[in-house]
Amino acid sequence: MSETEQEDRAAMAQLAGGEDLALNGIMERWKSRLTAYLYRFTGNEATAVELAEETFVRVYQGRMKFRTGGQFSTWLFGIAANLGRNHLRWQRRHPTVAIEEAGTVASEGDPLKAAESHEREQAVQVAIASLPPDLRESLILSEYEQLSQAEIAVIAGCSVKAVERRLSHARELLRKGLSRYLQA
Fold it and tell me: Which of 39, 45, 147, 167 is close enough to 151 for a disulfide, judged by CB 3.0 to 4.6 Å?
């Protein structure tokens, strides 16, 4: 068991014992990773920050339900994934027009290479965002959060084989959608 896992389990035991400030340590350790995951999942920074904060509210609310035998990161990302899925469902029922933010290109180095790099990054983000939510969730948890297929299966509420299929399908869709960048 990793040192972080031990710290998280100890913090959850403290939370369950009435030491509310133990949540601060959990938030400090996980806020940036959780926000990055939710940003990749939703494609919106403000939404990601809000959902990360709501995740920590749910951690506090669920402090008595946390099973010390389970892995904390799986439980935490499970909460975040559920919030992300709920948000995407809500968004589909209440569509809005997004205001595009102007992208800036780094002025250092070769501006052409910087522009090409920025274009590739944007294309990858768009391609990931266009994946169906179940494929996007599995891909992000695997590639960016480095979770195992078994951990992803627990978070997604499906079998390991289903996660394997989702990852394969997501990667195939990305290969097709990003083929022009793969040939370069």
Answer: 147
